[in-house]
Write a structure and sequence with these properties.
Layout lengths: L1 H33 L8 E5 L6 H17 L3 E5 L6 H8 L7 E6 L5 H4 L11 E16 L8 H8 L5 E5 L5 H13 L3 E5 L3 H9 L5 E5 H9 L4 E5 L25 E9 L4 H21 L8 E2 L4 H21 L6
Parallel strand pairs: 1-2, 1-3, 5-6, 5-7
Antiparallel strand pairs: 3-9, 4-7, 4-8, 4-9, 4-10
Helix pairs in contact: 2-9
Length: 333
């Protein structure tokens, strides 16, 4: 009997120990999940465009503030090419641990609509983290043309000569805003594709192409230097960076409102708690950029949203872009 009780006591002790040991991985996992980012770990932000451009400039301002919010090293890597797809693939194939992120513009979400063989679906193969800002586009024309306002362009479009419009990147806000302009102003435009804003601006300035719509921060320096002539901006209110340039709504297109925007994404299967942590840090970083005026210096209006709000925004933006491309008869390339 004594041996039976001794054995029963030993078995009970083993059971308690087994339960305690089973609980250890769970407790460790909980602690590890809350420790993000881990001490000494670096967060990489992939920018799918060349250094020095509008997206890169915004990303570097943002990454510095994100570093302060996360309390760890944050670096920016430029992986340009393929209208943003080269950099997108880096993040798409990265470990879903929150340490590799994509900072891109609105161009990213329309990959399936503009590429015949898109390597991923931006809406289902990435986890939206935060939309951080938006910026108006500016309509500019060659200074060699006698156009000073939108009405002049509309009048010219009624002549036999067909106007040409530069498209810096297929599926980019510049492309979609130009399609919207053609639709609402009832313009018949011939579209000329370029590999980036700079070569497009050179041709507009030289009189080889009539007009261009692109992010205001990209075209404003040349507009101020007289290399191109600013006609209007796409936001619903004037910009403090160019207060003398009217909006398209003021110019007679009462329904015209369009903006480029910037966002942050993680690989699809990144844990929800890490996405939430990154979203909070991103929103806090944007708040600091708004307070300091750093984003405003680039013509960017700060945006803070939840991940769900960002996801709904993307869905609406893709739907609008797809409709504009369809109405223009665009075929994926």
């Amino acid at each position: 009997m004594r041996n039976f009780h001794r054995r029963r006591t030993l078995l009970s002790a083993c059971a308690v120990m087994a339960c305690a040991m089973a609980a250890v991985p769970s407790a460790w996992a909980s602690t590890a999940a809350g420790r993000f980012p881990e001490a000494g770990r670096t967060v990489r932000i992939i920018v799918p465009f060349a250094a020095g451009g509008g997206v890169d400039s915004a990303a570097r301002l943002f990454s510095e503030q994100l570093r302060k919010q996360l309390g760890t090293t944050v670096i920016v890597e430029n992986r340009a090419g393929g209208s943003g797809v080269v950099g997108g693939r880096v993040v798409h194939g990265a470990a879903a641990d929150g340490y590799t992120l994509l900072f891109s513009a609105a161009t990213h979400v329309l990959a399936k609509q503009v590429l015949a063989n898109a390597p991923y679906d931006p809406q289902t193969d990435f986890a939206p983290v935060a939309r951080v800002g938006e910026a108006p586009l500016m309509l500019v024309v060659s200074p060699q043309l006698p156009y000073a306002k939108v009405a002049d362009i509309q009048a010219a479009a009624g002549t036999k000569r067909q106007l040409t419009a530069a498209i810096p990147a297929v599926g980019a806000p510049s492309h979609l805003a130009t399609l919207m302009l053609a639709q609402q102003a009832r313009l018949q435009l011939e579209y000329v594709s370029y590999k980036g804003t700079q070569p497009a601006l050179v041709d507009v300035g030289g009189g080889h192409v009539d007009l261009l719509m692109d992010s205001m921060i990209s075209v404003l320096p040349l507009a101020k230097g007289g290399k191109v002539r600013p006609i209007a901006i796409t936001s619903s209110k004037r910009s403090s960076l160019a207060p003398d340039v009217p909006t398209l709504q003021e110019s007679g297109l009462s329904r015209f409102s369009y903006a480029s925007w910037y966002g942050l994404w993680a690989p699809r299967d990144t844990p929800a708690d890490r996405i939430h942590r990154l979203n909070e840090a991103a929103n806090a970083a944007v708040a600091e950029l708004a307070k300091s005026g750093a984003f405003a210096s680039l013509g960017i209006d700060p945006v803070t949203e939840t991940t769900e709000q960002f996801k709904r925004f993307i869905a609406a933006d893709v739907a609008q872009g797809a409709e504009l491309l369809k109405n223009a008869g665009f075929k994926p390339e």
